[in-house]
Every structure is written in structure tokens, then in C-alpha cells.
Amino acid sequence: MLKFEDPTYFWLLWIIPLLAVVRIGVLWRRRKRLQKIGDAALLKQLMPDVSKARREWKFGLLMAAIALMVVMLARPQMGSKVSNDKRNGIETIIAIDISNSMLARDVVPSRLDKSKMLVENLVDNFTNDKIGLVVFAGDAFVQLPITSDYVSAKMFLQSIAPSLITTQGTDVARAITLASNSFTQQQGVGRAIILITDGEDHEGGAEEAAKQARKKGINVFILGIGSTKGAPIPVGNGDYLKDASGNVVMTALNEQMCRSVAQAGSGTYIHVDNTSDAQEKLNSELSKLQKGETQSVVYSEYAEQFQAFAILVLILLIVEACLLEAKNPLFKNIKFFKKQ
Predict the structure, then answer these.
(1) E strand or H helix at 301, and its extent?
(2) pLDDT in tens, 6-54
(3) Between 206 and which of 172, 240, 305, 327 could a Cys-Cys bridge form, CB atoms 3.0 to 4.6 Å apart?
(4) How far is CA 157 from CA 95, 123, 140, 146, 266, in A?
(5) Cα distance between residue 312 and residue 90, in whole Å
(6) The domain that contains 214 carries what CATH number?
């Protein structure tokens, strides 16, 4: 299993399209200068050894080398040991509301970012447990199937954003139903759905979905995040979301819905604010669940793989340097490139 120790370096890949745009501009200016010198057909006859294909190949090799260098900086690692471990733990599916209202900042730094921090701290406390991630707004989908790979869980967690789902709303029922169907089939294991939401624009049917989950032996915990007083929704550039009349839209935590769903799902409602109280209460509640034997595929002893990428970069750079734009007289009768 390949993973990256520091995937933040991947933003450097934007250098490649930027360089492509710069190259197009340079070639355009070069063509304009050549047109001032003389006719294109005549110039081609005067420069028989110049090859456009070679220029394109040299640029392609250089871009490939840059891409591989970025991958190398991200420190690719491969699990060199795979084991099937039997552990005593619980299974937890965390469903995170990613509707636009979760961008409100009545909880610092925002409702969504606070949710991510809470989940990350929860994962840090897991040892023999399994975790899965579901994201939802007006729709829902599985972001990460249930796993014991906590490193992957944190990676997927950081990529969560409202842009993942275009359908707005807060369909709690759909999220609970999807999460209920995402557990393993192992018996005798405590199961919990931890649903983090502000409960706004509730679509209905959540209590019934929680009751169905309870019948399957799944406890539904609701973490209500935000303030009941309401807060504006940032849209960037220091502005806030407004309605058709030009009034700033206020989003408030729907505690009544959250409490009702938690009660229907035989779980607990926990209010998330700017303190660490919610984290402590959640850890306490999860510790009460029955721990059963779970079997997990675990990748361990991750080995650095940047050396292989470094060799490829070196090979590409050597080939790029040896490939001249003008054809070598010693090999003028050998045509590797059709486009001359």
C-alpha cells in the first residue's frame, strides 16, 4: 500500500500547467520573430536540422521530471509488511455534515474545521477499533470505507469540504441509513454512528432512520455543533451568504432535532462548542460500548520509496540533456521522430 508522508507538496504540480502556458507564449513570440525574417518555407529549408518534435519531447521530459520530483518531496512510502490482526474493539462510522452552513464561525475556527479536529482527536484515541467516514448534505456518500488504517482516515478527513456535494440541505436520514449499511458483518462488536451536524434545513425521516439503526444494534450519537443564536455563513472576500432580498442568512443549531434523533437511536446528544467537553463526553460514551473481536488487514513497517522516483528523475533529466533540438550529424539518417 502506497501512502504519502507529506501530501501537501502536491500543490506544486500547478507549476507544470504554468510552465506550459509560459512555453506557449515564448513559442508564439519566436514564431512572430521568424516571420519577420522571411518566408516560413524558406526558413525551413535554411534550417534542415531543426526539429519541432525534439523540442516537444525535451519539454515533455522536463515536465515529467518536475512531476516526479514533486511526488518525491511528498515522501512516498510503501507498507512492506501486511498482517491480519485480530483485535478487541468497536466499529464507528462518523458522518460529517458538509453543507454550506458548516462554514459558519460561531465555533472556532469554523463548524466544519472544528468537526475535523474533533474526529482527528478521536482517531488518535483509537487503538483496536475500526473507523469509517460518511459525508452528507442534501445527499450522502461514503468517503472512507470502514478500516483500521488510521493514517488513511486522517488523510481522507483533511480532504473533506462542502464542494464534495453540490446538493445543499441536511439529509440526516440518508446519512444514518448509509452509515448503518457500511459496517462489517462481524458479530458481537459494539457499533456506533457518530453524526456531526448543525441540524439546519433538516429533510425529515431522521428519527425513523435512527430507530432502524437501533434495531440493528447500532447506537446513534449526535454531535450538534454551533450556536442556537445563529451565525452568518462566509462566502469569501469577507462577505456573507444573502437571501434573495439581500439580507444576510443566519444559520443556527437545531438542538431539538439533534436530541430527538439521538434518543431514537439509543445514543446521546452532545453539544460541541469551543471547549473540549464534547471530546471528553464522546470518549466516555464510546468506552461503554461492547468491544468484540475484529479482524483487520494492517500495513506496517512503511519503507521510504523516494529513491526509485529520484532515479527516474535523474534518467529523465539525462535524456533531456542529451536530446538536442538540432539533429546530430552522426545520426542524421536515423529518424526517431517523424515530425521534423
Answers:
(1) strand 292-304
(2) 777 788 888 888 989 998 888 888 777 767 766 666 656 656 666 677 7
(3) 172
(4) 11, 11, 15, 13, 26
(5) 44
(6) 3.40.50.410
Specify the 3-state DSSP secondary structure of 228.
coil
- String of b and e for 64-74 (b: at least 16 CB within 10 Å)? bbbbbbbbbbb
Residue 54 CB coordination number (10 Å): 19
Q: How far is the C-alpha of 148 from the C-alpha of 204, rounded, in Å?
A: 33
Is residue 213 domain-shared with residue 255, that is, in the same domain?
yes
The grid coordinates of residue 338 equal: 517523424
Q: Which of 86, 91, 87, 291 is nearest to 182 (CA)?
A: 91
Q: Hunting for cell 462548542 — which residue is that? A: 273
Q: How many domains does the chain have?
A: 2
Give the contacts of 149 (CB within 8 A, at least 6 positions apart): 1, 298, 299
Residue-wise burial string across 131-147, b where 16 or more C-beta atoms lie within 10 A, e elsewhere: bbbbbbbebbebbbebb
Closest C-alpha among 210, 208, 231 to residue 222? 210
Per the document, the length of the chain is: 340
CB 141 within 8 A of CB 135: yes
Domain that holds residue 317: 2-78+303-331
Q: What angle do CA 231, 235, 238 make, to 5 degrees?
A: 85
The alpha helices in the chain, defined as continuous H runs, are 15-37, 40-46, 52-73, 111-125, 150-158, 172-180, 206-215, 255-264, 277-287, 306-322
Give yes or no for a contact between 185 and 233, defined as CB atoms under 8 angstroms apart.
no
What rounded mean pLDDT belongs to the chain?
A: 85
